[in-house]
Automatic annotation (TrEMBL):
Membrane-spanning residues: 7-27, 39-58, 65-85
UniProt source species: Mesorhizobium australicum
Protein name, entry field: DUF305 domain-containing protein
Keywords assigned: Membrane, Transmembrane, Transmembrane helix
Domain DUF305: residue ranges: 93-142
Pfam family, one: DUF305
Domain of life: Bacteria
Amino acid sequence: MRAYARFAAMIAVSTVVMYSLTYVNVYQVSHIRWSETRLYMALIMGSAMAVVMLSFMLHMYTVRLANLVILSVAALVFAGSVYLVRSQVFVGDTSWMRAMIPHHSIAILTSERANLTDPRVRDLAARIVEAQRREISEMEKLIDDIERGR
């Protein structure tokens, strides 16, 4: 059973790492915010990874019932997370804005750093950067207002 505990720890740590990696391409560190949607996506990846890894290493994990439990839990986590990411049922005003700030930040990064040569595309990218910065600022102010009860 020690091997199964190690397997569970490996999947849990990998899922946390995957969640963290979803922020690698934000424009600036201050744009990193907690995001339920990114959590759901990390859980989807972690549960899929559990199935793939168990399948490849089945010869190391020989307890049939434990394997069935892992596969069942992974399927439930996957399905539940897909439902949560698609429905956004637990995402409210501030959590939506906290999720959108890193999303907008990624648009800034890709728009500013892409090797754009067509003047029309460069103009579009510049307008996107301006809009995303303005919207991030507005969301930060709204989050602050809502949290202060205004």
